[in-house]
């Protein structure tokens, strides 16, 4: 009887020595992450719809929309696979609504620049906007947090930099989102 009691007490003591994953150093690295990837396409399309619902001025004329990369907020001269994909999917949604879309993401001479915390369209974009009779330019930034990527998008009127529409959303940091956010581009 004493033998069984000793085994039970030993088992209880050993169980108390185990630690949950929150104290495991690998837990902070996402090794044990149960976060699933969101519907990135659906979320991006919803952002496009949200922007369109605010930009009635564009809906009346069906003017072209120029697409730029969604940039890393800590370095507006760089993006990532995630930033490129989100802007492409929003642009695709605009095209599905019948808007002419001009993709500027592959042009290295066209940049959206930051001046005192505000977005300003470069002269190149303003010139290209006139060439394409563009009604708006899609710009955006993203910030990588611990558990989410936060994305802010805007439609800006090129001739005066007026914000026509804005839409913010976040993406849970699942394995695909994490990988795409780390793949930097210039």
UniProtKB/TrEMBL annotation:
The keyword Signal applies. It comes from the Bacteria. Residues 47-174 form the FlgO domain. It holds the Pfam family FlgO. Keywords: Signal. PROSITE patterns: PROKAR_LIPOPROTEIN. Residues 1-15 form the signal peptide. The keyword Oxidoreductase does not apply. This is FlgO domain-containing protein.
